[in-house]
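Deliverable D5.2: sample structural annotation.
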Amino acid sequence: MDFNVKKLVKDAGAALSRVVQMTEETLGTSEKTELDAHLEHLAERGNATKMWTEKILRNMEAVLTPNPGNRIEDFFFEKIDKRKPNRLSNLEYVGTDMIEAGNDFGPGIAYGSALIKVGQCQQRLGQIERDFIGTAANCYIQPLRKFLDGEMKTVSKEMAILENKRLDLDACKNRVRKARSMLGQQSESGISPEVLLDQAERELRVAQSEFDRQAEIVKLLLEGVSSSQAGHLRCLHEFVEAQARHYAQCHAVMQDLQRELAGLSGGSYYTTSPATTNALENGQDRARVLCNYDARDPSELSVMQDEVINISEIPDDDDYFMGIRGNQRGKVPKVYLETLIIRH
């Protein structure tokens, strides 16, 4: 392999000069060209956008794929353009175990049958969860990652170039100041101070032009970063819609499971908790709410679908039960309630 020794020495010298220059700026012994206020503001907003996008993306990935080992594995498969492994979710593992246990205990008994039904429900929930994770990755995670790997990397690269142009500009300004201070003195190089000043001023004009051009490039890129938030907002809406569908599907599956379990052994089955025992001793029964009911006046009780409340008969009133929920009491129409059989 051929090495250009002169180029290596020149690059090393330039890098060392910049380190010295930045150190002097930090110590306040050298002047530093500041960016204009608008560009500074855009740069601050761009940095904030990058920081928060990285944080949201990292946390979202952790929510959708809690296992860090799985996240690393998925990242590896993405990099080599291979399909991700189709692994089961925790819910599906639980569901599989429940189904096997139910079959072992016997599907003909109540507990075995319930285990099988609950296990099948967990498997459905696991599939719904997997579908949601895939949708969320497509509509939200991938656009954010593409933004960071594309626009923000370009901005970071151009910002680094701008910083180098700024260092070059300040170095030229220092040479001009030094050349002006040498006017009227004998130059050690044998070149007249006037010639050195003219050369330094030409280099300064070139450096200023390159700095201004690069500043405009960075400004346009940063303005594009600000406008990209509109796209991120659309992605966020899509994610929220996907999440709402996910929870609605889970709720529907759980409601179906509750109805199936309530139908086991010919009716609803409830263990008698202390609250239920107290209700029975006070002549109260239990009832499940068939659909939402909003109280029309203070004498009535508002109830929600599938809620279970205590009830008692109201003398001389065949249309209403007295509903009891903790310290709350009020009338509830009988047509909204299904009386439950409590078994000890």
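Annotation notes: The beta strands are 285-289, 308-313, 320-325, 328-333, 337-340. The chain has a mean pLDDT of 83.
The annotation will be released with the project's public dataset once the embargo ends.
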